[in-house]
Design a protein that fits this description.
heterotrimer; A: alpha/beta; Elongation Factor Tu (Ef-tu), domain 3; Rossmann fold; 2 domains; 6-stranded antiparallel β-sheet; 5-stranded parallel β-sheet; 5 helices; B: mainly beta; Sulfite Oxidase, Chain A, domain 2; 6-stranded mixed β-sheet; 5-stranded mixed β-sheet; 2 helices; 11 strands; globular
Chain lengths: 247, 203, 83
């Protein structure tokens, strides 16, 4: 496995795809991407013409199998400094700097096995998507469940792709909960993640699933506590807390 | 080799020098009130809160919240300057002047450590808290000071960078020697004058 | 300002220690609790980054950028076990 790079390297935006009204996926190209693991992130640094710099961390959405492609799904924060630039302004050919891949804890390799429980709030689903894409690329039979929390259906990231993965894979189940508005006849959940929801969606604690929870701090802590209450081994519940995000 | 520019990227707050003689070098003016912390927000209930002056004094002096509220307080409007480059102009506070708290206290001490819930400390020469330069503030903008901004009470020492105004302050320890506080021990300037841009060690 | 975890400090820790640190175990010098660095409580701001013990909340480590320099206080960590 390639060792992570500690230093900054230049990157160029190859392509940008709209995901939702407030989120886009940026495909970045670097000279020498060492490869990454599902769940890792990069630090992105922007430099203005006057030398001003700003830096943020973004999870890698692409799986390790997408050779050399560093895809970041970024959600625009209204009062943000970096995300509005990345989502709205940055165009193919524009440059930034990347440091990474970073992280050795919140990672999943198919060899780690399962069953796998992924719980994501808002853009917390991004690193989990890398894991599911990795799993799909290897045609892995590891049983997996994703519970995704978003404000509304329009805010669900990767909705079509997840629907397709779920439909085509007996060992994958995707559950969605909408916390602010749900369409009429919405068959999924329509409230904040709570213990009864976790109990319905999660593997039984006795199955000792590998759990990854990602999203805003209050979301992560509430879900992690709920799972531990349900008997899950805290040592098998890995968490990654994001700053402000939409969930 | 300089890093590549990101076309079209610029700082969110353009460095406006609305009043060049009001904004110290390297600062930009903000209209919001950024929150920076080194730890969790404490939530000390008012019935457990106290403010203490101790150290190089004959007798430590302590006020409960109720006692503190009976002290003469004043409204002050000042500009504040954070070492992370933002300045907020014309902020209004209500609090008790440190001069009031020090009335009747005799000391040869030259230095003070502001200490707070959660363990934060910052050091200041005693003279920099006297003569109308510092307050213990419990209202901001006409409302009780919110916990994320240091409530129930914080120091207000506006002539120095704002890390010298301890949030969640619980007292002042007077001392003959200067004892660097939290950020001062970790790279920040011992005195912190924004007008001389004293941000870091060796500035 | 929201509390984050050791994952958020991973890039910075790699700058300091020249290796991946989120899987390392740290022992708190204040309470003796051992925790994976990824699970420590992290407060990151432009002024500096502070890592705190997830059990007792005492400061484990403080990291400050001063222009091109890095100042690291490790006095809150008794021991680090690297995997």
């Amino acid at each position: 496995m390639a060792a992570p790079r500690a230093g900054w390297q230049s990157a160029t935006l190859r392509d940008k795809r709209t995901e939702t009204d407030r989120a886009a996926t940026l495909h970045l190209l670097t000279d020498a991407w060492p490869g990454h693991r599902a769940g890792q992130h990069v630090d992105v640094r922007l430099t203005a013409e006057d030398g001003y710099q700003a830096q943020r961390s973004y999870s890698i959405a692409s799986p390790p199998e997408d050779d050399g492609d560093v895809a970041l799904t970024v959600e625009r924060l209204d009062d943000g400094e970096v995300s509005p630039y990345l989502v709205d302004e940055m165009a193919p050919g524009d440059m930034c700097e990347l440091r990474g891949p970073i992280g050795g804890w919140f990672v999943w390799d198919a060899d780690d096995g399962g069953p796998l429980l992924l719980v994501g709030g808002g853009s917390g689903v991004v690193p989990l998507m890398s894991m599911l894409r990795h799993r799909a690329a290897l045609h892995s039979g590891v049983p997996a469940r994703l519970l995704l929390s978003a404000r509304s259906l329009d805010d669900v990231l990767y909705a079509d792709e997840l629907h397709g993965l779920d439909a085509g894979d007996d060992e994958l189940d995707v559950s969605i909960t909408l916390t602010r508005t749900a369409p009429p006849d919405w068959p999924g959940y329509a409230r904040r993640v709570d213990r009864p929801m976790l109990e319905e969606v999660a593997w039984p604690a006795a199955d000792r699933p590998r759990v990854y929870v990602c999203g805003p701090t209050p979301f992560v802590e509430s879900v992690a506590a709920g799972l531990v209450d349900l008997g899950h081994d805290a040592g098998l519940v890995k968490t990654e807390r994001f700053g402000a995000t939409g969930s | 080799m300089s890093p590549p520019f990101s076309r079209g990227f610029h700082r969110r707050h353009e460095a406006e020098r609305a009043d060049a003689d009001r904004v110290p070098p390297g600062q930009y003016v903000v209209n919001d009130f950024p929150v920076l912390s080194a730890g969790p927000t404490p939530h000390t209930p008012l019935d457990q809160w106290s403010f203490t002056i101790n150290g190089a004094v004959d007798e430590p002096r302590t006020w409960t919240w109720e006692q503190f509220q009976t002290l003469p307080a004043e409204e002050v409007t000042r500009d504040i300057h954070c070492v992370t480059h933002w300045s907020k102009l014309g902020t209004t506070w209500r609090g008790v002047a440190v001069d009031t708290l020090l009335q009747g206290i005799e000391t040869s001490a030259e230095y003070v450590v502001e200490f707070a819930d959660g363990g934060y400390t910052t050091n200041v020469p005693l003279d920099d808290l006297r003569d109308g330069k510092a307050w213990v503030a419990y209202e901001f903008d006409g409302e009780p000071l919110e916990s994320e901004h240091g409530g129930p009470a914080r120091m207000l020492v506006p002539h120095l960078y704002f890390w010298k105004s301890a949030k969640w302050v619980r007292g002042l320890t007077l001392s003959d020697d200067d004892r660097p506080g939290f950020w001062e021990q970790n790279g920040y300037h011992n005195y912190g004058d924004p007008w001389r841009e004293q941000r870091y060690w060796n500035d | 300002m929201e509390r984050l975890d050791g994952n958020a400090a991973a890039g910075l820790l790699q700058e300091v220690f020249a290796r991946e640190m989120t899987t390392a175990m740290e022992t708190c010098a204040s309470c003796g609790n051992e925790a994976v660095v990824a699970t420590t409580h992290v407060y990151m701001g432009d002024i500096g980054t502070v890592l705190r013990c997830p059990t007792c909340e005492q400061v484990l480590m403080t990291i400050v950028h001063v222009r091109e320099e890095l100042h690291v206080d490790l006095s809150g960590v008794r021991r680090i076990d690297l995997r």
